[in-house]
């Protein structure tokens, strides 16, 4: 377990945990055959972490999540931050005007007007995306932007879990079969046990969860929550700048 201390909070919660949750049905399937008290299980887990298995899982979840992200945003009509910045988007027009003013100062150029956005939507989105990248660099202080960080962790967790959905479905299905086989075999040899059937129920619950819960709509909620908090952070940055100027002038 000491290997887990090598991960920072974000990597552990948003990358490693989704990967471990994906593999959990397989561990339950193994338990259905071996039963409680198998010492080699803890030894195997220690060896897995020592050779970098947990680090590999974190990278796998992150990479799959990043690969999924462009298609996910395209299905939504653009990244959440871009949609909130568009004149034609769903964001509050009063707040959008304030966000545009801040990002204009950050970029050193004016953001597209409504007419310019309609004339060349792609160019407008490129400008919005550039502003967002600069804003992200301005908000990396976890303590100062704690709420934003929490939303980012939740979004990363949900996105990476969705990216591992197919693997989770396959492992849950195969492990359910393994649990059923373990229970049937024990009954066949005259040594019926309860825990293989309990493991079967657990894996079937995992299977239902992957099918009906882990969907793009489930990721959309934290994605837009993070986008809103990110843009709202412009108010904190602007206030901090005003405070700094006032202090330097006194």
Keywords:
11 helices, mainly alpha, single chain, elongated, 250 residues, 0% strand
Structure description:
The chain is mainly α and 250 residues long. The chain is built from eleven helices and no strands. It has helices at residues 9-34, 39-50, 53-76, 80-85, 93-107, 114-119, 121-138, 146-163, 165-188, 195-212, 216-249. Helix 1 (9-34) packs parallel to helix 8, helix 1 (9-34) packs across helix 10 and helix 8 packs antiparallel against helix 11. The longest helix has 34 residues, at 216-249. The mean pLDDT is 89.
* Broad shape: elongated
How many β-strand stretches?
Answer: 0
Quaternary structure annotation = single chain
As a whole number of angstroms, the C-alpha radius of gyration is: 24 Å
Structural category: mainly alpha
Distance between the termini: 53 Å
Low-confidence region ranges: none
**What order do the helices and strands follow?**
HHHHHHHHHHH
**Describe the biggest sheet?**
none
Q: Helix amount, in percent?
A: over 70%
Question: Strand fraction band?
Answer: under 5%
Average pLDDT taken over every residue = 89
| Helix count from the secondary structure assignment | 11
Task: Give the topology.
Elements: H1 9-34, H2 39-50, H3 53-76, H4 80-85, H5 93-107, H6 114-119, H7 121-138, H8 146-163, H9 165-188, H10 195-212, H11 216-249
Helix pairs in contact: 1-3, 1-8, 1-9, 1-10, 3-8, 5-7, 7-11, 8-11, 9-10
Short description:
This protein has 250 residues and is mainly alpha-helical.
